[in-house]
Amino acid sequence: MINSAIKLLLVEDHKLMRVGLKSLFEEQDGLEVTSEAQTGKDAVEKYKTTHPDVILMDIGLPDINGIEAAKQILELNPNAKVIMLTSHLSEQEVLNSLQTGACAYVMKDINTDILKMIIKTIKDGAMWIDPLAVPILREKNKGIVPARQMSRAAFRQQHADLTQREYEVLKLVVEGKSNNEIAEELTISSHTAKAHVCNIIQKLLVDDRTQAAVKALREGLV
Predict the structure, then answer these.
(1) Among the listed residues 106, 97, 111, 95, the one whose alpha carbon sits nearest the alpha carbon of residue 128
(2) Beta pairing partners, 185
(3) Measured by CB atoms within 10 angstroms of the end CB, which terminus of the chain is less buried, N or C?
(4) DSSP string for 74-140
(5) CATH class as words, domain 6-140
(6) Domain extents for the chain?
């Protein structure tokens, strides 16, 4: 039987974090950590020999940092799919990661289900920016976001029947918020939040909130 799982190269210098992520993916159908690296230089060499589908790249590494390692990998293969992982938000790291050609900038405290979705959509050619980094791009972006990401305007044009409130709810769904958390964030009742989610699912022609989040990611809403 052909193994169709997405092959991951996991680059992380902290053993506990690396073991935890590997364990997480071992429990997920469709994802498999096929190689690991503890340094940036090792990551480049592992990429050459294992040819993973997606690279999960820690930024803070003990030799060359993850951004430089990503740059070297992308020089070897401009189509390589690199997800930058970080424990803190840095304006310069956000901009440098995207200028280098990374497909995603992800905070390490992200919801694990969302991380799995990100990996799968990145493999399919999407792009994802942590919501905390979006204000940086709004202020500083000068065309560094690749054209393969559909613009918010284009997404809205395709899904013009979504209301402004439903877009706000959809963004929170993508962030992994529950109905109760959405209600608290938007100062609405849980019943209203649930109704908005149901409407979004119906309008996007998907089966559940997870598929709605995946579609939003794939089509560039966030």
Answers:
(1) 106
(2) none
(3) N
(4) HHH-TT--EEEEESS--HHHHHHHHHHT-SEEEETTS-HHHHHHHHHHHHTT--EE-GGGHHHHHHH
(5) alpha beta
(6) 6-140, 152-218
Q: Minimal CA–CA distance to 136: which of 97, 101, 100, 173? A: 97
Q: Answer yes or no: same fold for 6-140 and 152-218.
A: no
Handedness of CA 118, 119, 124, 128 (dihedral sign): positive
The pLDDT profile of the chain, 222 residues, written as one tens digit per residue, is 345 789 999 999 998 888 888 888 876 678 889 999 999 999 999 999 999 999 999 999 989 999 999 999 999 999 999 999 998 888 889 888 988 889 889 998 888 888 888 888 888 877 888 877 777 776 665 455 544 444 445 555 555 578 888 888 988 888 878 889 899 999 998 898 999 988 888 888 877 787 788 777 766 665
Q: Taking a C-beta distance cutoff of 8 angstroms, is the pair 47, 11 a contact?
A: no
Q: Classify 222 as helix, strand or coil.
A: coil
Measure the N-to-C terminal CA separation of the chain; round to a whole number of Å.
Answer: 36
Q: How many helices (H) and strands (E) does the chain have?
A: 11, 6
Give, in words, the CATH class of 152-218.
mainly alpha
Q: What is the pLDDT of residue 110?
A: 85
Backbone torsion region of residue 32, taken as left when φ is above 0, otherwise alpha when ψ lies between -120 and 50, otherwise beta:
beta
